[in-house]
Write a structure and sequence with these properties.
This protein is of the alpha/beta class. The protein has one domain: TIM Barrel. Helices cover 39% and strands 15% of the residues. The longest helix has 18 residues. It is globular and about 45 Å long. 1,3-dihydroxyacetonephosphate (13P) binds next to strand 8.
């Protein structure tokens, strides 16, 4: 199972230390499940210095489309790797909605991250209107088709280039409304089949679920056949809760 912690724009060094110190005490748990922490850019090198000899992996919450130059405020893939990251999250709904990031941009960023050997989590998810209108599968299909439009150029034989899809329904993020087992399973099967059919590949891309995952519902989520892990927001900021989620996955 993949257990990814998206800290979003939370934590100062002291908070990161509290979280990491608690997690590291249970380092043996992380041999069974792959635990990846995604702090803010400002904390990457600090968190790396704490976890580099543990089994916890480090990732960034986004990256620039560009390699270097006059792009004030942006951070390149090379810089992220230099800070100790092995992973990056692309196309999170908060970036798609608040920063108007498009699937075309996500696709270009994915090409960059894969070119430099960064494992990448691509987020997709429908909003409440799409769900109520029952157009969610075509919305997801479009997001995946466009976000992975460079698929044929990716070198999946490189041991580093791992693609993970995170299904995060927007209506379930930070709302306490978790999708039902049926809804999660339906979408995960759909995503896996769509990638195989559309991109004519045999690659079985892991699909993880995100949206109000907590210590109480994670056990049932891990039991769903086509769930390969979870992407946790709020609950990853509480060490005991996050540890319980990791324990539930093993
Ligand atoms: P919550 O777990 O807080 O709902 O956030 C989910 C998420 O957006 C993870 O990327």
């Amino acid at each position: 199972m993949i257990i990814a912690a998206n800290w979003k724009m939370n934590c100062l060094k002291k908070d990161a230390d509290t979280l990491i110190n608690e997690l590291i005490k249970s380092d043996n748990l992380f041999k069974k499940s792959k635990v990846i922490i995604f702090p803010s850019y400002s904390l990457l090198t600090h968190v790396y210095s704490k976890i580099h000899s543990s089994n916890i992996k480090l990732g960034a919450q986004d990256c620039s489309l560009f390699d270097h130059g006059a792009f004030t405020g942006q951070v390149s893939v090379e810089m992220i790797i230099d800070a100790g990251c092995e992973y990056v999250i692309l196309g999170h709904s908060e970036r798609r909605v608040m920063c108007k990031e498009t699937s075309e941009e996500v696709s270009k960023k994915l090409f960059k991250s894969f070119s430099l050997g960064l494992n990448t989590i691509i987020c997709v998810g429908e909003n409440l209107q799409d769900r109520e209108d029952e157009t969610y599968l075509s919305v997801l299909k479009n997001q995946i088709k466009l976000s992975l439009s460079n698929f044929d150029k990716f070198d999946f034989n490189s041991s580093n280039n791992k693609l993970i899809i995170a299904y995060e329904p927007i209506w379930a993020i930070g709302t306490g409304k978790v999708a039902t087992e049926e809804k999660i399973n339906e979408v995960h099967v759909f995503i896996k089949n769509f990638i195989k059919d559309h991109f004519k590949t045999k690659i079985d891309v892991p699909v993880i679920y995100g949206g109000s995952v907590n210590e109480d519902n994670s056990n049932d989520i891990f039991k769903i056949d086509n769930v390969d892990g979870v992407l946790v927001g709020g609950a990853s900021l509480k060490p005991r809760t996050f540890l319980k989620i990791i324990k539930n996955s093993t």
